[in-house]
Every structure is written in C-alpha cells, then in structure tokens.
Design a protein that fits this description.
Layout (H helix, E strand, L loop, with lengths): L2 E7 L5 H9 L2 E7 L7 E6 H10 L5 E5 L3 E12 L6 E8 L6 E10 L3 H4 L3 E4 L3 E6 L7 E5 L8 E3 L18 E6 L7 H24 L6
Parallel strand pairs: 1-4, 2-6, 7-10
Antiparallel strand pairs: 1-3, 2-3, 4-5, 5-6, 7-9, 8-12, 11-12
Length: about 220
C-alpha cells in the first residue's frame, strides 16, 4: 500500500533561491516520469523527508503535488551536502503499477537464537536485500527467523521465504546471518571499546540506509 506524501510545486531554481528554500526547512526535488510532459520541480518538508528516510526510504509513495494531484512514485536519489550530510536534493520517479521495480527492503531478524543462548554471537551480514516485484507487492521488511540457528550455523539467501510475487537475484549463497563461537572474556576496557565500535557501526548502517537509495522504475 502506498504511503501518502505531500509536496509543493516550486518555481525557484537559482542556487541562491534554493539555499533560501533549504533555510526555511524544505528540500528541493524533481519528479520524473514517462507520463509527465516535463519533469516537475517540487519542494518537500525536511522533517517529513527525514522521517521517510529513517523508516521506509524504498517504499511506494502516493505523492500529492498541487494541481498535478496524486501519483505513485518512488524515491530514486538522495543528494547530501558532503560536509554537513544534510539532504540538499531528492529525485522521485513515477511508477507504472503494472511493471516490476527493483528496490531494497530492510532485513529484520526475528526469534531468540539457540546459539546465542549458548553464548554465541549473532552477526548480521546484510541489512537490506535487493528485490524485484510489482510496486504494490513491496514488503515493509523481509523477516528472517533465527530461532533455530546453532553456533557455527548461518542462513543464506536461498533459505529465505519471500512473499508471493517477490523475487531476488542476489547470490543464493550470500550469507544473511551467522552465529559465531563465543569470544574470550573481555577486560572492562576491551568491552567498552567493543561497545563503542558496535554503536558506531550501527550509526553507519543507519546513515547508509538513509542515503543508499537504489530504486529502478
């Protein structure tokens, strides 16, 4: 189901005008599509865009743009400032609801792993999976049940149970998640360093999820 998302048409196009637009809390963008006479210049609310990027950056959207009305689109490009990392421009593409799209979907691990209960360490190897399907069939997440995984075992792409109408061309032998053997007991200092590294890795993964938008429509 498409997520409602609002935008407004914009007429400002010079660099100075666009910078003023950004200072007001909006992000400029463009909507492309075969059914459009020409690309449509738009602006979206920065806070609403950030929420979209944090939660469902690859979702099917029902974009409402002024007199143009509502249309199915997907976010296909996010440009960021190289220093501040703030979003400075976005691209949307119209979607043909009868044609497959290629996009990314978040992988969500579920269940309490038997191996982890025995002291093993669960390590996710991929956080998103590239899929192919009709726009209306894009799942919110791909769930991976790890409850039966023992120490030394892993789950591969070939083991996934994808929703009806959803396929992937990712290597079937690609490891999704594995349970590593317990590591040696860490000192307090080593444990603190490991915690910092894990936090930084999680932050990098979240940022990658917000900016690594790959959708083909």
């Amino acid at each position: 189901m498409a997520i409602p998302f609002k935008a407004q048409e914009r007429t400002v196009k010079t660099r100075g005008e666009l910078n003023q637009l950004r200072k007001k809390g909006t992000v400029p963008g463009v909507v492309y599509g075969k059914k459009l006479a020409a690309p449509v210049s738009i602006a979206v609310d920065e806070k609403e865009l950030q929420q979209l990027l944090r939660t469902t950056p690859h979702a099917l959207l029902e974009l409402e743009v002024g007199a143009a009305g509502k249309q199915p689109v997907m976010l296909t490009e996010v440009q960021r400032d190289p220093i501040s990392r703030s979003v400075i421009h976005i691209d949307f593409h119209q979607v043909n609801m009868n044609e497959e799209v290629r996009t990314q979907v978040r992988v969500e691990l579920t269940g309490d792993s038997a191996g982890v209960r025995e002291g093993g360490i669960l390590q996710a190897m991929i956080h998103e999976l590239e899929i192919h399907c009709l726009p209306n069939n894009i799942p919110d997440v791909i769930e991976v049940d790890v409850s039966q995984l023992q120490i030394g075992e892993n789950l591969l792409v070939v083991d996934l149970q994808l929703p009806n109408g959803v396929t992937t061309k990712v290597d079937p032998a690609q490891v999704i998640v594995t349970i590593l053997a317990p590591q040696k007991e860490l000192s307090a200092e080593e444990a603190a360093e490991a915690e910092v590294e894990q936090k930084e890795a999680a932050e990098r993964a979240e940022e990658a999820n917000m900016e690594d938008v790959h959708t083909s429509v």
